[in-house]
Design a protein that fits this description.
It is built from 21 helices and nine strands. With 526 residues, it is of the alpha/beta class. The strands form three sheets. Strands 5-4-3-8-9 form a five-stranded mixed sheet. The two termini are 58 Å apart.
């Protein structure tokens, strides 16, 4: 602390109370800052993090409860009906009894058994000395059948079963299989699924009117990283990387493409990020505008001497972000798509909206010390809840009059001043986010929250808790791809079991269309 403490001998009671409240607020701010530092230290040491806050319940006052008997336990989608086998059950009766028909009694069961087929393949030696062997039936690849591969993939990715438990379960069924063999079945030869997952992302980015995004911690090659979720009501995609920067997010939005492009969109992005005009003019004046990969782009920057420039902001970083944005637009991604996030800085690209639940949670988490503080906090929360409910009504019946009224009402709420200094500062911060929070007034189709992304990414959190991290890039890509495909199937109303059966050519499976085509059709018709 700097300066001498005030003389408390001649101070009034009100002034002493004011100083005490200011001191308590400063202590609360320092406590929160120290908690953040402790959490970061714990993360770096690999220790267990602090407990998370429960949702503030902002949705509860505005979302009607489901009627009894609907939507319980079934995940919102009825299961595929199994074939029914009729069996006649007879009984011995006395002579002269009258037959009164049948009483139906349904019993559901599941039959699981190991089946080992030994093919005796004929071998012939032709007069020319050539050995001819009878081919295996169509669909046989390797020493494990399609149904077993289907079961292993479904149990591991959808059922979230660990490899060790899966191996023990298969052995209990009577199969001779090792942990290494199960791992090979999970990650080897899965290029078809990884490619379809990437195609799902491309279909969503090129046709969706909005997407929500989120990220969570992930482990890969014994190092801390991050898993980013991108999706909407019709698809979900996951990508695990070592960074959560805006540069990394833009690379993910390229959906597998590796090029860098300087076009009108790229130059506009650079201007929006306040890159020096001389650098923009230098990049715009070159005849070469498309670069195949990062190495070619870095070489282009070196030739122009941009890394040596001492200007603010960093010209290499902003120019690279702009070239990535140009690549995204050049491939037809995010044409008019709005991105809705939780106000994490790396997601602030393109038309950007903010989650109202996260915004209200900031008010909900404030530390209060007096009844006056608690009353001010509750009053602001009530105003935000009512405004949120009216935004939901506006989404169903938008009009210019309501739009103007809601904008004015937003200003009245967040320009309000209370005797709670910390709350007033938070309201000013939220007021600065007005364009992102009120993007829904111009785009009524976008969601007011990122609950969908938070729900989707829980499967990655569960996978991390029960299996730790991945050790190879192939294993990481397979884990992300299959979890994304399972979530996408669920959103499209397709059983993941049926999807695996169709792609693996298992017996007795219904046909499942190519998921990217379904995603594109759903997004365009939404």
């Amino acid at each position: 602390m700097t300066g001498s403490p005030p003389d408390l001998a001649g101070i009034s009671g009100d002034e002493l109370k004011r100083l005490l409240l200011e001191a308590l607020e400063k202590i609360a701010a320092l406590t929160a800052e120290n908690a953040g530092l402790r959490a970061e230290i714990a993360r770096l040491k690999g220790l267990k993090g602090p407990p998370t806050f429960k949702p503030s319940g902002m949705e509860k006052p505005s979302t009607p409860a489901k009627p009894p008997g609907k939507g319980g336990g079934g995940g919102g989608r009825s299961a595929r009906t199994a074939l029914v086998e009729d069996r006649l059950v007879t009984v011995a009766v006395p002579a002269g009894s009258r037959f009164k028909g049948y009483e139906l009694y349904v019993v559901q069961d599941l039959e699981i058994r190991a089946r080992v087929t030994r093919y005796r393949r004929q071998r012939w030696l032709t007069p020319d000395g050539e050995t001819v062997m009878a081919p295996l039936p169509i669909g046989i690849t390797g020493h494990f059948g399609a149904e077993l591969r289907r079961f292993i993939l479904a149990q591991y990715h959808q059922g979230q079963v660990t490899v060790l438990r899966l191996v023990q379960l298969l052995r209990d069924f009577g199969l001779s299989i090792s942990k290494r063999q199960v791992m090979r079945l999970l990650i080897a030869g899965q290029d078809q699924f990884v490619g379809e997952a990437r195609a799902v992302l491309r279909a969503g980015l090129s046709s969706a009117r909005w997407i929500t995004v989120d990220d969570t911690g992930a482990r890969h090659k014994a190092m801390n990283g991050f898993c980013t979720q991108i999706g909407n009501a019709h698809f979900a995609w996951f990508g695990t990387t070592g960074s959560k920067s805006r540069l990394n997010f833009l690379e993910l939005l390229r959906a597998g493409h590796e090029d860098y492009v300087i076009n009108a969109e790229a130059l506009s992005y650079m201007r929006g990020r306040n890159l020096a005009g001389t650098v923009i003019a230098l990049l715009a004046g070159q005849s070469e505008t498309r670069f195949a990969d990062r190495m070619a782009w870095q070489a282009h920057l070196e030739r122009l001497g941009i890394p040596a420039l001492e200007v603010t902001p960093d010209p290499v970083g902003i120019a690279t972000e702009g070239a990535l944005w140009g690549s995204i637009k050049a491939h037809g991604f995010l044409p008019t798509t709005a991105i809705v996030s939780d106000d994490a800085g790396q997601f602030d690209v393109g038309p950007h909206g903010l989650c109202w639940v996260h915004a209200e949670r900031l008010v909900h988490k404030l530390d209060t010390f007096t009844d006056l503080h608690r009353a001010a906090q509750q009053r602001i929360r009530d105003l935000i809840w009512r405004f949120y409910r009216d935004l939901k009504v506006y989404q169903t019946h938008p009009s210019p009059q309501r739009r103007a009224a809601l904008r004015a009402r937003f200003d009245r709420i967040f320009r309000r001043r209370t005797d709670f200094v910390t709350l007033d500062r938070l309201l000013a911060r939220l007021l600065a986010n007005k364009p992102e929070l009120l993007l829904v007034l111009d785009r009524p189709e976008i969601p007011l929250h990122t609950n969908g992304s938070e729900n989707d990414i829980r499967c990655q959190v569960t996978r991390r808790k029960i299996s730790g991290g991945t050790r190879s890039d192939t294993g990481r890509d397979c884990r992300d791809a299959f979890l994304g495909l399972a979530k996408t199937c669920s959103k499209l109303g397709i059983a993941f079991w049926d999807y695996l059966g169709d792609r693996l050519a298992a017996s007795a499976h219904p046909p499942v269309p190519y998921l990217p085509d379904l995603v594109r059709h759903r997004c365009q018709s939404a």
